[in-house]
Amino acid sequence: MPEIPVLPAVWRFPAHPASVGRARHAVVGVAPRQLHDELGLIASELVTNAVRHGTRGDDLVELVVWPADGHYWLAVSDPGDGKPSVGRWPAPDAESGRGLVLVDALAAAWGVVPRAYRGKSVVAGLVFPPAGM
Questions:
Q1: What domains are defined for the chain?
Q2: Is 102 exposed, middle or buried, given 0-12, 13-18 or 19+ CB atoms closer than 10 A?
Q3: Residues 121-131: pLDDT tens digits?
């Protein structure tokens, strides 16, 4: 009989800035201790982007976390049609623009995946166990 894989953890949050902290807390609650800081930061940045740029009104942001293939994966989905990309590092006094630069620096891999019915998912993975452990 095949081994049953670990099921992903799934949350849906309102498209509101208060959801960023709730998403970070949710991820830290299911992630291995060694990945709390990195996965928490990635969740914060991706949910912030989804709330600011991918939603409006009563939309929801979906967060999924799961282990697979030696990584811990995190996906944040929203109904927006924009395709996030890493731009240049913002000016030192800029109040935004660092999110995907940080995700790019932390994640072993990340990308944007279109959803079949509407919107996109931004998926990022961290190697587990972390190097040097």
A1: 9-127 (3.30.565.10)
A2: middle
A3: 999 999 988 77
